[in-house]
């Protein structure tokens, strides 16, 4: 007697490039295609007729049982994306290790198999979407980096003026709504044009980078430190009254001036003048704080530089 030939549908099910298996209401396996065999290492004879959890105890039991039962009850399709659950089965993938994923990323579809008007089984498909997931993660990482670069000053790596002013506006709006304390510092390097003229712009750029690094190491995590342009910098100090802001200004001033910057064997002495301002009732916007800090900075320079000033009160 000649063996029976498989039907075309059987051949298709065996050869498709995604996983297909069928479960009854008790979660016993009724069908297991070649994709499932090849990626799990489990032959159909070893799983058909047995509860899927018996052979694969690592499966998310409660989640899978709930998904299958919903299809039996509602008689409608269900779907699970890799973004919701990265995988159902821990299958290896063919992406290089640099892909950043441990297992094959999978989309799962749950389809009711109906006889008459009754759902008699649920067909589950497993699609390998590892490539799609890796590409999306890489795209998201690239967008995040671009966004970060857009917020950073190209020379010093700290926040740029656009980002600083946006954060200042946010903090000022929060202060208007909830009260509290909010201060800002503006400071620039004294006689910086002289440094450029005497030592060159390359040395000047090194001085700016070094100063930014020094200050970034002494500010708090919640503060926003940015470059306003040229040799002028700004520091946003949330939850900080003016007196404390002046103490921060002095700390920054000494951080800048206590040690010269060495550039190719040449020691360049640097000092800074600092202006401080705080949010006050009646202020129309965050620009008022910047204007007041700028006026205080101008006073610091007029009074001899290398000092911190707020509203005309200097700390020599």
UniProtKB/TrEMBL annotation:
Residues 180-313 form the GGDEF domain. InterPro entries: Diguanylate_Cyclase, GGDEF_dom, Nucleotide_cyclase, PAS, PAS-like_dom_sf, PAS_4, Rev_trsase/Diguanyl_cyclase. GO terms for cellular component: plasma membrane. Residues 12-75 form the PAS domain. GO terms for biological process: cell adhesion involved in single-species biofilm formation; negative regulation of bacterial-type flagellum-dependent cell motility. Pfam families: GGDEF (PF00990), PAS_4 (PF08448). It catalyses: 2 GTP = 3',3'-c-di-GMP + 2 diphosphate. This is diguanylate cyclase. It comes from Paraburkholderia sacchari.
């Amino acid at each position: 007697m000649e063996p029976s030939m498989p039907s075309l549908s059987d051949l298709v099910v065996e050869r498709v490039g995604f996983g297909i298996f069928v479960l009854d209401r008790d979660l016993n396996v009724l069908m297991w295609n070649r994709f499932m065999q090849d990626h799990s290492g489990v032959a159909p004879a070893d799983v058909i007729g047995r509860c899927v959890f018996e052979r694969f105890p690592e499966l998310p039991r409660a989640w899978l049982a709930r998904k299958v039962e919903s299809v039996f009850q509602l008689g409608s399709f269900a779907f699970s994306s890799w973004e919701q659950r990265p995988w159902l089965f821990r299958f290896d993938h063919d992406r290089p290790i640099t892909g950043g994923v441990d297992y094959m990323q999978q989309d799962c579809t749950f389809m009711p198999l109906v006889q008459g008007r009754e759902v008699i089984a649920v067909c589950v498909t497993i699609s390998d979407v590892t490539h799609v997931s890796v590409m999306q993660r890489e795209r998201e990482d690239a967008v995040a980096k671009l966004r970060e670069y857009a917020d950073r000053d190209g020379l010093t790596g700290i926040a740029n003026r656009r980002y600083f002013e946006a954060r200042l506006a946010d903090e000022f709006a929060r202060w208007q709504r909830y009260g509290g304390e909010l201060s800002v510092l503006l400071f620039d390097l004294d006689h910086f044009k002289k440094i450029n003229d005497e030592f060159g712009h390359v040395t000047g750029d090194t001085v700016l980078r070094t100063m930014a690094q020094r200050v970034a190491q002494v500010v708090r995590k919640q503060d926003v430190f940015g470059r306003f342009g040229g040799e002028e910098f700004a520091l946003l100090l949330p939850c900080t009254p003016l007196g404390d802001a002046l103490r921060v200004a002095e700390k920054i001033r000494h951080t800048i001036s206590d040690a010269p910057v060495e550039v190719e064997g040449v020691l360049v002495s640097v000092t800074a003048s600092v202006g401080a301002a705080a949010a006050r009732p009646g202020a129309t916007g965050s620009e008022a704080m910047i204007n007041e800090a700028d006026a205080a900075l101008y006073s610091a320079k007029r009074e001899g530089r290398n000092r911190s000033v707020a509203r005309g009160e200097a700390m020599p």
